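Board work, copied verbatim: Large ribosomal subunit protein uL23
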Amino acid sequence: MNQERVFKVLLGPHVSEKATVLAEKKSQFVFKVATDATKLEIKKAVETLFNVKVAGVTTLNVLGKSKRTARGLGKRNDWKKAVVALQPGQDLDFSSNAE
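↓ predict structure ↓
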């Protein structure tokens, strides 16, 4: 996988209450990813960017909500979420990898 694709696969971390609990208790981290990304691409991208070993990847498609606006009905964009489980002894630190 080329370097350009690595940066297009991972769009950013997804921060929520559930994601925080997963990170603390199970060493699993949640990312927003490209909608066309595969589990293998996500695994390689995380291993390359953060220098960790990935045990498994779970993905799910999140459907955008329908919202009422002043102009009528609108819809938020659909997106894809990936839960990345790290191998025992591995940890992921977002602050030290920002370049």
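The beta strands are 10-13, 28-33, 54-62, 66-69, 72-75, 79-86.
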